[in-house]
Amino acid sequence: MTLLADRIAHTIRQDVKSMHAYAIQPSAGLVKLDAMENPFRLPPELQRELGERLGRVAINRYPVQGPADVVAALSRHAGLPAGCKLILGNGSDELIDILSVACDVPGAAVLAPLPGFVMYEMSARLRGLRFVGVPLTPDFELDEAAMLAAIEEHRPALTYIAYPNNPTANLFNDATVDRIVAAVGRQHGLVVFDEAYQPFSSRTWMQRLAAHEHVLVMRTLSKFGLAGVRLGYLCGTAALVDEVDKVRPPYNVSVLNAEATLFALEHADEYARQAALLRAERERLQLALLGLPGVRVFPSEANMILVRVPDSKRAFEGMKARGVLVKHIAGLHPLLANCLRLTVGAPAENELMIRALKESL
User: Fold this and answer.
1) 194-229, pLDDT tens digit by residue?
2) 70 and 186 in one domain?
3) pLDDT of 4 strictly over 90
4) 217 and 209 in contact (C-beta within 8 Å)?
5) Same domain, yes or no: 164 and 55
6) What is the distance between the alpha carbons of residues 232 and 216, in angstroms, rounded to a whole number?
7) Final residue of a domain: which of 198, 232, 266?
8) Per-residue pLDDT tens for 145-176?
9) Which of 33, 65, 80, 233 has minimal CB crowding within 10 Å?
10) Across residues 242-256, what is the average pLDDT?
11) Which residues contact 159 (CB under 8 A, 6 or more apart)?
């Protein structure tokens, strides 16, 4: 054993050494449809305006006023209910970790449906909380009986409901969700609705926050069109959010990120136009995919579509060879056997994706 290997063996946690790092696929030279990004850039005149504005930011100072202005602007943009507050995170990932830290009481557990967003489990385990995963049904609906039984048994401090879910892209049945929210409330836990895909979804929990003091809504601006800015926000009743805010790192949102966010919110009509186009493209894609032999298309309320194909490895590699990169997710969970996750792109990108998939089946 080398000196460095010996040092690693004695200093790095065993569970960390056993983990796999979050995988990001190389995408150079490919049509990138693997990460649910907004494919549209700002028009040239807005690019110039943003560049000039960022150039005037006082990057020699710690970020104080900029993030405060973002909180106010996002509160208006999201229609934050009276009596509620929001805090900012460096993307949703940091907010998930902040929640893990804040809720790490002795014996605490985190519960989430599976398949779901991998960071719920990763953050829980790294922060020393038990993670309880409850499989969805074969049609990717919540298994109500299993969820309620797990809540009763494990009394989770945090229950995540991705709304819509990632990677399956669907919204769960509202009556089922209501009963799960009520069950968690009776156990004195918190429910976090992860609304990362809210610009593409027909439903939200935001306006119900004030009536459910144990519910939080988490959103990100990544799907809004600012994936490179890395800004998320967590909303809930003021007293609850104030407690969570105590473990948020100081100055966690940079002045440049804050200014770019303010600029985007001032031009929200442009991003709304982009989201409307992507929703229309999603519908067009679903119809086109339904016509491909052997392809099962699942319902979507996000900017992605889950499909099951006869041989997902072959289809993924065939599409990549034809210059189109999607996400091969068959290995993430047994329910995702032979599944690919397709990001909804610009119209020309979607044409290339349909053609590449058709030729790769």
Assistant:
1) 999 999 999 999 999 999 999 999 999 999 999 999
2) yes
3) no
4) yes
5) yes
6) 13
7) 266
8) 999 999 999 999 999 999 999 999 999 999 99
9) 65
10) 96
11) 110, 111, 112, 151, 180, 184, 189, 190, 191, 192
Q: Which two tokens stand for residue 309?
A: 């194909």
Does residue 237 sit in the same domain as residue 184? Answer: yes
Mean pLDDT of the chain: 95
CATH of the domain at 349: 3.90.1150.10
Length of the chain, in residues = 361
- Single residue among 248, 266, 284 that ends a domain in this structure: 266
Mean pLDDT to the nearest integer, 340-347: 98
Return left, alpha or beta for 37; rule: phi > 0 is left, psi -120 to 50 is alpha, else beta.
beta
Instruction: Please check whether residue 196 is in contact with residue 37, taking contact to mean a CB–CB distance below 8 angstroms.
Output: no
Q: Are residues 120 and 251 both part of a single domain?
A: yes
Are 179 and 275 in the same domain?
A: no
In this structure, the answer to whether residues 77 and 140 fall within a common structural domain is: yes
Instruction: Please write the tens of the pLDDT for every residue from 59-88.
Output: 999 999 889 999 999 999 999 999 999 999
Residue pair 353/324 in contact (Cβ under 8 Å)? The answer is yes
* Structure tokens, 75: 């509160």
Look-up of token digits 């385990």:
125
Same domain, 224 and 107: yes
Structural domain including 180 reads 45-266
Residues 6+ apart with CB under 8 A from 305: 169, 282, 285, 286, 289, 297, 298, 341, 342, 344
Q: Are 247 and 51 in contact (CB under 8 A)?
A: no
Per the CB < 8 A criterion, the answer to whether 249 and 226 are in contact is no
CA atoms of 251 and 95, how far apart (whole Å)? 14
Quote the radius of gyration of the chain (alpha carbons, Å): 21
Are residues 111 and 207 located together in one domain of the fold? Answer: yes
